[in-house]
Design goal:
The protein is α/β, with parallel strands linked by helices. It has three domains: about 170 residues, NAD(P)-binding Rossmann-like Domain (Rossmann fold); about 160 residues, 2-Layer Sandwich (Dihydrodipicolinate Reductase, domain 2), CATH 3.30.360; about 80 residues, ACT domain (Alpha-Beta Plaits). It is about 35% helix and about 25% strand. The protein has 15 helices and 17 strands. A six-stranded parallel β-sheet has the order 3-2-1-4-5-6, with helices on both faces. A six-stranded mixed β-sheet has the order 8-10-9-7-11-12. α6 packs parallel to α11. Bound molecules: L-homoserine.
Length: about 450
């Protein structure tokens, strides 16, 4: 039998870094970290076959050491100090899976300063501190990957940065908070109360540590910030996103939307307009037959309109341990494959090379264009044409106005669909209605989107 007279590189201990296992340090081993550990262990061979090398967890930082040791076993050292993992000489990549924005920022910056590549699913961290983190990573020549930060299981960051790279994106719209979508679906389909549905979402591990982030639209705004930057080549502009959550919704809103043929979804919208980029997260009415209106439970859906590809849509689990792990590990495999590739030849952190980033203005709330749905409580005995005339007096035309079903005769409500207007016109009309003698209480106004349908 032929024998190569020269011992292999592997035998001589000279295996290049790119072919030995990628060594991972985990900060946090809760929902996301635990899921990542499980999937890496279960699919080890399959993942190595794709990465061209193994991926091994070699260090873990966790608050609860005993719990962490139960998850990762005795072979993996566990520490209470995340900075130890960030500086660990045997760690190639730090996975930040602890969440939050304060300490997580310091750990990630420390890891970068030590030349580590970073993977995180922490959308809050990146929406708020992303510019600083990416600048530090560029200066150090390391990658920061974050596929799991947006719509967990859906490779939407990859789709925007790579698959759709030829396109000038015109708009994107997404149901990007699994918890809110789960709650809205439970309320609509099972008549469950808001608090019960939220408790169930928490028990299933969908909700953020502070569920106010989910139900107030903040989590979706974090994700929209990342999507918009990647779609439009603009900086991260979280503070400029117009945010409204589902916590102000009433059953009458959901019913009233349905009566006119719509479903209410917490929708994130980023759209180019000649005056600037519209960036908003709001409970929004979608035609009941629209594809995004079919995204139910904790599922997410994102639609992107590119000038060349047209409309594309992405659907998948929007929350969950292994669903997030799927994206975290995809990032690890990318990094395993990219070892040794110069940073300038890698995909830029936000899809566009920094010198080409465009500081596009964000459209102010008052200038947001669109159609609105209104639910107007009227004094008994009033007529719909009087309401129509009152709104017309303030520049708001109506394409439709009907009485809401299921409201008592003594407390009637009108449901309206406006013509196209800007928010400032509607605000002016709503101020006038607030003191109008025919109007019985606060008017609810929600945007309507048809998304080129
Ligand atoms: N709390 C988030 C959600 C988890 O419900 O979508 C995934 O980012």
């Amino acid at each position: 039998m032929y024998r190569d007279p020269v011992p292999s590189l592997e035998a001589r201990g000279l295996l290049p870094a790119a072919t030995r296992a990628l060594r991972v340090g985990m900060i946090g081993i809760g929902t996301v970290g635990g899921g990542t550990f499980r999937v890496l262990a279960r699919n080890q061979r399959h993942i190595a076959a794709r990465a061209g090398r193994g991926i091994e967890i070699v260090a873990v930082a966790a608050r609860d050491l005993a719990r962490a040791a139960r998850i990762v076993g005795a072979a993996v050292p566990v520490t209470a100090d995340p900075f130890e993992v960030a500086a660990h000489p045997e760690v190639d990549v730090v996975v930040e899976a602890a969440g939050g924005t304060g300490p997580a920022r310091d750990w990630v910056l420390a890891a970068i300063a030590h030349g580590k590549r970073v993977v995180t699913a922490n959308k809050a961290l990146l929406a708020v501190h992303g510019e600083e983190i990416f600048a530090a990573a560029r200066a150090r020549g390391v990658a920061v990957a974050y596929e799991g930060a947006v719509a967990v299981s859906i490779p939407i960051v990859k789709a925007l940065r790579e698959g759709l790279v030829a396109n000038r994106v015109e708009w994107l719209a997404g149901i990007i908070n699994g918890t809110s979508n789960f709650i809205l679906s439970k309320m609509r389909d099972e008549g469950m109360g808001f608090a019960d549905a939220l408790r169930e979402a928490q028990a299933l591990g969908y909700a953020e540590a502070d569920p106010a982030f989910d139900v107030q639209g903040i989590d979706a705004a974090h994700k929209l910030t990342l999507l918009a930057a990647n779609a439009f080549g603009m900086p991260l502009r979280f503070a400029d996103v117009q945010v409204e959550g589902i916590d102000g919704l009433e059953a009458a809103d959901v019913r009233g939307a349905e009566q006119l043929g719509f479903r209410v979804k917490l929708l994130g919208v980023a759209r180019r307009t000649p005056e600037g980029v519209e960036l908003r997260v709001q409970p929004t009415l979608l035609p009941a037959t629209h594809l995004l209106a079919q995204v139910n439970g904790s599922m997410n859906g994102v639609m992107v309109k590119g000038d060349a590809a047209g409309v594309t849509m992405y659907y998948g689990a929007g929350a969950g341990a292994e669903q997030t792990a799927s994206a975290v590990i995809a990032d690890l495999v990318d990094l395993a494959r990219l070892e040794g590739v110069p940073p300038a030849q890698q995909v830029p952190h936000l899809g566009v090379h920094p010198h080409a980033t465009e500081a596009l203005p964000v459209l102010p709330r008052a200038a947001a264009p669109g159609v609105r749905w209104l639910r107007v409580p009227l004094v008994a005995g009033q007529r719909l044409d009087a309401l129509q005339a009152a709104l017309a007096g303030h520049g708001v035309s109506l394409q439709r106005v009907v009485w809401a079903d299921h409201t008592p005769a003594a407390a009637p409500e009108a449901l309206c669909l406006t013509g196209l207007l800007v928010q400032a016109t509607l605000d002016d009309a709503l101020r006038a209605l607030a003191t109008h003698p025919a109007v019985r209480g606060p008017v609810k106004a929600l945007p309507v989107e048809t998304l080129d349908a």
